[in-house]
Specification:
The chain is mainly α and 286 residues long. The chain has helices at 4-9, 11-19, 26-66, 70-106, 144-151, 156-162, 173-191, 205-210, 236-240, 270-285; strands at residues 154-155, 169-170, 195-196, 202-203, 223-224, 229-231, 257-258. The chain has three domains: 4-106, Orthogonal Bundle (Helix Hairpins), CATH 1.10.287; 138-191, no CATH class; 193-286, BirA Bifunctional Protein, domain 2, CATH 3.30.930.
Length: 286
């Protein structure tokens, strides 16, 4: 998340960088953030000034009582009570302003690197590096959805029966292959110096904000309403949040963690459906 200080000090750089992402009305969003921050500072200053005056009067009241000037002390007590009320009256406004500012900041993505080209989708990406040769499948190549039926290793119909679309049942050699691949990749990561982590498969709201799932991806996540927890979309979400609000010392870098978890995403499988339709259409048209 961008810091207000960065936005204020490097306003034009931030705006121009975010324009690469073709965000609409980004200037308005930035001005809203700066105005909310100014409002927050103004309210906070009022509270601090009232509190400082109250502290000064509290000391004076003690001195006046000791010197027998009770009438003046009572006047100061009335003023102190008035100041406390003013501080209390400002608290809800300050809290609301801080909440609005936080939401506005969450809605602004990070600024892309200066080398990143302007674009609104994959078609605007540039090829930075390519290695090897892309394999070309023969005309008789069999797509994976036909292979899994042939060998009876994954059953989408059973998964749909038990849970719904997007939850396949791995069977026999399919289940063994799944288990073997998990162990293989975790072992490979271990050999490369990664520490294996087995994190929770649910996260709280703060963790969702910590890795950018919130505030705009609730619709892609599964929510446990009673406990106010989200099922994780990837293992990187809880693993990254191990370091949320933590300052990592330079001599501790790089941090290398790896883990396996189930992944829960509502959009899972949609790309596969698109691919299947495209390949089926090509096969039908020859």
């Amino acid at each position: 998340m961008l810091q207000v200080a960065t936005i204020r000090e490097e306003k034009e750089r931030v705006i121009q960088g975010l324009k690469k992402r073709r965000l609409k009305e980004i200037e308005t969003s930035i001005e809203t953030i700066l105005n909310l921050d100014s409002k927050r500072k103004q309210i906070q200053k009022q509270q601090d000034d009232f509190q400082a005056e109250s502290n000064t009067l509290a000391k004076e009241i003690g001195n006046l009582m000791k010197s027998g000037q009770k009438d003046q002390a009572e006047k100061f007590k009335l003023r102190t009570a008035e100041l406390k009320k003013q501080i209390g009256d400002l608290s809800p406004e300050l809290a609301q302003t801080e909440e609005e500012l936080q939401k506005a900041l969450y809605a602004i993505p990070n600024v892309p690197h200066e080398r990143v080209p302007e674009g609104g989708g994959p078609d605007d990406n540039i090829n930075v590096y390519e290695h090897g040769t892309v394999p070309q499948l023969g005309a008789d190549a069999v797509p994976h959805w036909d292979l899994i039926k042939k060998y009876d290793i994954i059953d989408f119909d059973l998964g749909n029966k038990i849970a719904g679309a997007g939850f396949p049942v791995y069977k026999g050699k399919g289940a063994k292959l799944q288990r073997a691949l998990i162990n293989f990749f975790l072992d490979q990561a271990h050999e490369q110096g990664y520490k294996e982590i087995q994190p929770p498969i649910v996260i709280n709201e703060a963790s969702g904000y910590g890795t950018g799932q919130l505030p705009d991806k609730e619709g892609q996540m599964y929510f446990i309403g009673e406990d106010k927890l989200f099922l994780i979309p990837t293992a990187e979400v809880p693993i990254t949040n191990l370091y949320r609000d933590v300052i990592v010392a330079e001599n501790e870098l790089p941090v290398k963690n790896a883990g396996y978890t189930p992944c829960f995403r509502r959009e899972a499988g949609s790309w596969g459906n698109i691919t299947k339709r495209e390949i089926t259409k090509k096969r039908q048209t020859g």
